[in-house]
Amino acid sequence: MKRIRRDVGHFFREFTTSSPARFAILVFLLLITLWTTLLTLPISSASHSRTSFADALFTAVSTICVTGLSTVDMATHWSPFGNAVIYIGVNIGGLGALTLASMLGLIIAKRLGLRAKLIAAGDTNPLRAHGGAVGESQAVRLGEVGQLLRTVALSTLIIEATTAALLYLPIVSAGYSWLEAAWYAPYYAAMAFTNTGFTPNPGGIAVFGHDYFFLTVIMVAVFLGSIGFPVIYALSRDLLRPRRWSLHVKLTLVTTVILFFAGAVAFLALEYGNPGTYGSMNASDTVFQSFFMSAMTRSGGFAVVDIGELYGSSMVVGSMLMFVGGGSASTAGGIKVTTLAVLALSVWSEAKGRRSVEAFGRRVPSDVQRVAVAVLAWGATIVALATIVIAQITHAPIAEVLFDVISGFATVGLSTGLTETLPDSALYVLATTIFMGRVGTVTLAAAVAATSRSQLYSLPVERPIVG
Fold it and tell me: Any stretches that span the bilayer, and where are they (predicted)?
């Protein structure tokens, strides 16, 4: 018996460290399977009837992948048991694919060895997952990985608990009972920090549409969840010493702030006269709601106004913001802000005729630039294919299909209203898109290429004409 346990333990240790990307994907698939099973149980629905497989699967994918899109009314369809399953699921999914895989590997292996540390470091700093030297100023040192994983768990607990405490009284002030608020507050806190966007009450967050304090707390929680655990970890150590921040932290924060203000200005300029959204609001409400919309399109998923009433121009802006998403190793989705930053810096350097890409006194290696291009290309390809397939199945307006597909890929959760009307075949396509967007194009590529062989020779150079 001891030998069997030893052999099983050895197998799991080897499996968790040999291919972290494939292990992470397997973990997510198993979680989705388990949550689908739980959500199909009669005890999970408020009517005590079995939820259809398509609705249960889609909700499970949206929960584990912290997306927020739904095909049922989240406030009325699920029972307390079903809501508890969803609440636990978003917190598990919010930890991230490789971080979650690393934690499980640590539990199974009972120790964090060198290879396991490399797995965790690969998630907390995606640059480690690719070839080429990575300066220690850009990386999380291996000796700090255990501390980083503790930071992930503690930051999630502390931020969600603080957010829930701040939301409790505003929820009571909105007319809900003390008992209802005791459930709604931690639910909203989890959905905000994990950037999911599910709402437990009829009417959703629109009920609190004029409560600036409530919406501000939600925005802050969404921001903290979207910047990424490595950034939270760095700020927890050197908040008042920005010179010690790594290049990743600086690029994440600067790009996030720029997109936040640029998005708000765009929504304000495009929607101020729209009677279906901001046209009936006063000036202060319009400005505030523009900032709120900008924050939510980055991955938050909450909406005070009806997304289906946005002008087409605003949907394009929202789609662009959603596609970018948040920070690496965060609860947000998209191609990530650092990917956009690296691409923008590469274009700027090329326009200036510089031979290297530089930022904040550091040089960005060429392999990171290639990864950024690959992530953009794969992300755009996934979105394009899913949009074509769903548009062909439904014959719905292409603008609405594209918006909801990008929202799914970037795990945002905003919808024009199309998702809840999709047939089962289109739901399966969108669920696959959500899964690929959450696991990440880099992780998927690493999983496929895990057994690739190194090329020990190089071919002659010949330059094609580009542009």
Answer: 20-41, 84-109, 157-179, 212-235, 247-270, 320-348, 368-389, 425-450
- The larger pLDDT score, comparing residue 290 to residue 466, is at 290
CB 170 within 8 A of CB 209: no
- 363: which strand partners? 358
Q: What is the pTM of this model?
A: 0.86
User: Which stretch of DSSP H or E encloses residue 317?
Assistant: helix 312-324
CA atoms within 13 A on the CB side of 272: 12
Range 380-387 contact pairs with CB under 8 angstroms and sequence separation of 24 or more: 382/409, 382/433, 382/436, 382/437, 382/441, 383/323, 383/409, 383/433, 386/429, 386/430, 386/432, 386/433
Calpha distance 394→398 (Å, rounded) = 10
- In this structure, what is the dihedral angle of CA atoms 127, 133, 138, 143, given to the nearest 10 degrees? 90
Is the alpha carbon torsion for 441, 447, 453, 456 positive or negative? Answer: positive
Token reading at 20 = 């972290």
Domain map of the chain by residue range? 7-132+143-446
Instruction: Establish how many alpha carbons lie within 13 A of residue 170's alpha carbon, considering only the half-sphere containing its beta carbon.
Output: 22
Is residue 135 predicted with pLDDT exceeding 50? no
More confident residue, 147 or 42: 42
Which burial class, exposed, middle or buried, applies to 110 when counting CB atoms under 10 A from its CB (0-12, 13-18, 19+)? exposed
In the block, tokens 């089962």 appear at: 424
Per-residue pLDDT, 402: 95
**pLDDT tens digit sequence for 230-281:** 888 888 888 888 888 889 899 999 999 999 999 999 999 999 989 989 988 8
Q: DSSP for 383-430, please give it.
A: HHHHHHHHHHHH---HHHHHHHHHHHHTT----SS-GGG--HHHHHHH
| Structure confidence at residue 128 (pLDDT) | 42
Q: Which residues in 64-79 are b (16+ Cβ under 10 Å) and which e?
A: bbbbbbbbbebeebbb
